[in-house]
């Protein structure tokens, strides 16, 4: 199933500054990132006929952002419910709309004041509208780091994954962020710093956890043909996949807590791209927590099941390794815009404009969303230099 | 403590828990046991079901020791344990740990009810 492989492209990406307090509304952040992405592509809001976002009641809707920029009657829009699981599904759905001829130029954004206004983990409200919350919140089990720590321990118990493996990933990503002017955390750290950081929820320490960030990021999707005539080198969308899997509390089959929805999705994704893990030059993997990357390295087929920790410890995910991962520093060190900054970094790597962080000769990139532990869904993109 | 907000599918399950009845749903068509409560069987799509009392016992899948005060009125540290039910191995629950020492992998455990009020008891876990 080659789907809409290489028929659409990312023509531009845009960012606001990342901070702990933007002092502006999510509407303002969204407009700033959208305008920056359009400018990157050499376009204006008058060229846009589609607009999309994902959110959990924490940000400005397309129906507000569009009119605020004079995009009054888009041919297509998407207001996708969800957090990090659906970030890449939004781009995939925009590409689907463009490939189907429903829209020609779609701008996708995610705008959050995730530190100063709406903290994912610190409120006790859990995932909105999930029926699972009633069975978790009374026990003080409400925050994503707790849930991921639970699964991380299961992986440690089954496969012998160690704290030092998580730590090596955090250290490597911080070293990448040192080279990234956008990154919020640019002071190098050592494995000792990691091990000395305070407990959040054992087995997770502070440095296992992503940042909470105010900021926005936007991506412009158009036809491959049109993208070739625009300002920047096109980055083709070779594959997009999104979908579900078992939830641990779904009451379905006995689930293995060390396998994510990514394992179900990966074969469809690779089939659409006509590529495999061996073809991927750089990977921007959803790193809400260190363990999230380790389990995805396995479930996307870069190493055997259970070998994610040793794979990281071998240096394979560092610059110059077999698979450089989270070259911008990721959510752990750059900032946390729920998946979209991973897509933008992948685009930058494939355009060859990543500066000191550039992976030489990068042709194919994988970028992924939250792999499905918290809501049983995930999404991912394979992007290719045009 | 955040009190659970039952939905229209789960209200009776919480009422039974308050009476210390440890139940899951059993599909009336194919017999599949399921938790949390919902109307349809995900395996055979049957809508007939009944409550099935099962042993209030399971084994430890994983656990966390929480230190960060995510909830203002919950003294830290506290341990949350994930348990796979002995009589319904497809079903998993989380609860607080009432053991004298940290749990260990695959440890047999049994329910330790925590009475909150006449309408609510929480299902916590202790060594079997």
From TrEMBL, chain A:
A family per Pfam: Thiolase_C_1
Q: Which residues form a coiled coil?
A: none
Listed Gene3D superfamilies: 3.40.47.10
Q: InterPro entries annotated for this entry?
A: Thiolase (IPR002155), Thiolase-like (IPR016039), Thiolase_C_2 (IPR055140)
Domain Thiolase C-terminal positions: 255-383
Q: Which domain of life is it from?
A: Bacteria
PANTHER family the record matches: ACETYL-COA C-ACETYLTRANSFERASE (PTHR42870), NON-SPECIFIC LIPID-TRANSFER PROTEIN-LIKE 2 (PTHR42870:SF1)
> What is this protein's record name?
Acetyl-CoA acetyltransferase
UniProtKB/TrEMBL annotation, chain B:
What InterPro entries does the annotation carry?
ChsH2_C, ChsH2_Znr, NA-bd_OB-fold, Thioester_dehydratase-like
SUPFAM superfamilies tied to this protein? Nucleic acid-binding proteins (SSF50249)
Domain named ChsH2 C-terminal OB-fold: which ranges? 51-112
- The organism's superkingdom is given as Bacteria
Residue span(s) of domain ChsH2 rubredoxin-like zinc ribbon: 14-49
| Name of the featured protein | Zn-ribbon domain-containing OB-fold protein
Q: Which organism is it from?
A: Sphaerisporangium corydalis
């Amino acid at each position: 199933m080659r789907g809409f492989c290489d028929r659409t492209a990312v023509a531009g990406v845009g960012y606001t500054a990342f901070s702990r307090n933007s002092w502006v509304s999510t509407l303002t952040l969204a407009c700033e990132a959208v305008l920056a992405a359009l400018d990157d592509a050499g376009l204006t809001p008058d060229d846009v006929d589609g607009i999309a976002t994902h959110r959990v009641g924490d940000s400005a809707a397309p129906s507000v952002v569009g009119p605020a920029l004079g995009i009054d009657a888009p041919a297509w829009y998407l207001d996708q419910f969800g957090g990090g699981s659906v970030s890449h599904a939004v781009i995939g759905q925009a590409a689907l709309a463009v490939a189907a001829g429903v829209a020609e130029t779609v701008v996708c954004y995610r705008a959050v004041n995730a530190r100063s206004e709406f903290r994912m983990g610190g409120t006790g409200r859990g995932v909105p509208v999930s029926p699972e919350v009633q069975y978790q919140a009374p026990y003080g089990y409400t925050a994503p780091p707790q849930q991921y720590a639970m699964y991380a321990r299961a992986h440690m118990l089954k496969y012998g994954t160690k704290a030092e493996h998580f730590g090596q990933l955090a250290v490597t990503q911080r070293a990448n962020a040192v080279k990234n002017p956008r990154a919020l955390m640019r002071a190098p750290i050592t494995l000792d710093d990691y091990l000395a950081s305070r407990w959040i929820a054992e087995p997770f320490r502070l440095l296992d956890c992503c940042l909470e960030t105010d900021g926005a990021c936007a991506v412009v999707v158009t036809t491959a043909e049109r993208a070739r005539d625009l300002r920047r080198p096109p980055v083709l969308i070779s594959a997009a996949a999104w979908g579900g899997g078992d939830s641990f509390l779904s009451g379905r089959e006995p689930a293995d807590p060390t396998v994510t929805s990514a394992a179900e999705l990966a074969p469809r994704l690779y089939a659409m791209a006509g590529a495999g893990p061996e073809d991927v030059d750089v990977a921007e993997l959803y790193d809400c927590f260190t363990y999230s990357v380790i389990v995805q390295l396995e479930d996307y087929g870069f190493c055997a099941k259970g070998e994610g920790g040793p794979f990281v410890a071998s240096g394979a995910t560092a610059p110059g390794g077999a698979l450089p991962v989270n070259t911008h520093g990721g959510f752990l060190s750059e900032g946390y815009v729920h998946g979209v900054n991973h897509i933008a970094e992948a685009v930058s790597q494939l355009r060859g404009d990543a500066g000191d962080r550039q992976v030489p000769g990068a042709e194919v990139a994988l970028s992924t969303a939250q792999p499905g532990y918290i809501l049983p869904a995930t999404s991912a993109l394979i992007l290719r230099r045009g | 403590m955040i009190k659970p907000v039952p939905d229209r599918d789960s209200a009776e399950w919480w009422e039974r828990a308050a009476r210390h009845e440890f139940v899951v749903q059993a599909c009336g068509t194919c017999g599949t046991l399921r938790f949390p409560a919902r109307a349809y069987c995900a395996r055979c799509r049957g809508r007939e079901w009944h409550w099935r009392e099962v042993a209030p016992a399971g084994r430890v899948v994983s656990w966390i020791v929480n230190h960060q005060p995510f909830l203002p009125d919950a003294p830290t540290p506290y341990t949350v344990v994930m348990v796979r039910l002995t009589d319904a191995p497809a079903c998993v629950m989380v609860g607080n740990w009432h053991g004298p020492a940290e749990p260990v992998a695959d440890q047999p455990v049994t329910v330790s009810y925590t009475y909150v009020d006449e309408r609510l008891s929480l299902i916590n876990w202790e060594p079997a």
